[in-house]
Amino acid sequence: MSTGRIEKFWVVRNPSEVSTLDDIVFETTIESLILQAKGGLSVEERPRMHLDRQSAEADAFARIAVRRALSAMAGGRAVGDVRSARKLHLLDAEGAVIFEAEIGA
Fold first, then answer.
1. How far apart are CA 68 and CA 89, in angstroms?
2. How far is CA 60 from CA 21, 48, 53, 71, 97, in A?
3. Chain segment 41-87, per-residue pLDDT in tens
4. Model-level pTM?
5. Could you tell me the residue ranges of all domains in the chain?
């Protein structure tokens, strides 16, 4: 009989410039998460809990993509003045738009 208690869940934290998916997403228990916090996991890493691996990995991929985009822009690899940007597109390997957002004022 199920008690409705969540035994395990997934946690995603913010990536570094060189993080991989395995570095920032992990399955855990509440007891283990408490140990993670005592060992250095901080609120600055913006940890987020997920009940399933699929949503955790989607969150992790998005965080890695954003981090890589910010690093590229900060590194001067933008082809124009990013201050005038109004829309953001992410493309898949074939060039099809997989994400689009209005970002300008």
1. 14
2. 6, 10, 10, 17, 19
3. 999 999 999 999 999 999 999 999 889 888 887 877 767 777 788 88
4. 0.76
5. 9-80
